[in-house]
Amino acid sequence: MAAATRFPHSVLCLISALDWHGISTQIPHQIHLAVERDARLPVLDYPPVAGYRFSGRAFSAGIDRVDVDGIVLNVYNPEKTLVDCFKFRNRIGTDVVLEALELYRTRKTFLPGRLMEYARICRVANVMAPYLEAKREMPAKVL
Q1: Residues 13-59: tens digit of each pLDDT
Q2: What is d(CA 108, CA 7) in angstroms, rounded to the nearest whole number?
């Protein structure tokens, strides 16, 4: 909440958003925040913050505004979060991304069309398509 009040125009993203939506077993060691391309990156000593610059629709699409004890928290929805994780897969690890995709598939309503919509916006549709096809054809397993 400290980061949300200090940086009200930022959006919770990547591993922090995966954790928020319950689609990761990773424990975020930093709060991952997205800001617009021209904005100053968020910096805090505590809690530690990792900032990412997104531009245009890649920043504005898929934001949910959640009221937590009177404080509005901006967080990307599960589908946009997964797409962003694919975009930053080299930074956060492909294993984290694939685990999140599997957890999303088993714990949430699997919406491949919505995932591909965000993938086109974020320019990772060609990367994601094979993974979504494979997940669509596989029976769901419980983790």
Answers
A1: 999 999 999 999 998 899 999 999 998 888 888 889 999 999 999 99
A2: 29
Angle between helix 78-87 and 14-21 (nearest 10): 150
In order, the DSSP letters of 29-83 are SSEEEEEETTSPPP--TTTTEEEEEE-HHHHHTTEEEEEETTEEEEEE-HHHHHH
Q: Which two tokens stand for residue 54?
A: 């997104």
For residue 66, the Cα-to-chain-centroid distance in whole angstroms is: 15
**What are the Cα distances from residue 13, in Å, to 136, 140, 141?**
25, 26, 26
pTM of the model: 0.88
List CB contacts of 123: < 8 A, sequence separation 6 or more.
58, 87
Query: Which residue in this structure is represented by tokens 């995966």?
Result: 18
- Burial grade of 32 (CB within 10 A; 0-12, 13-18, 19 or more): buried
- In angstroms, the CA 58 to CA 121 distance is 6
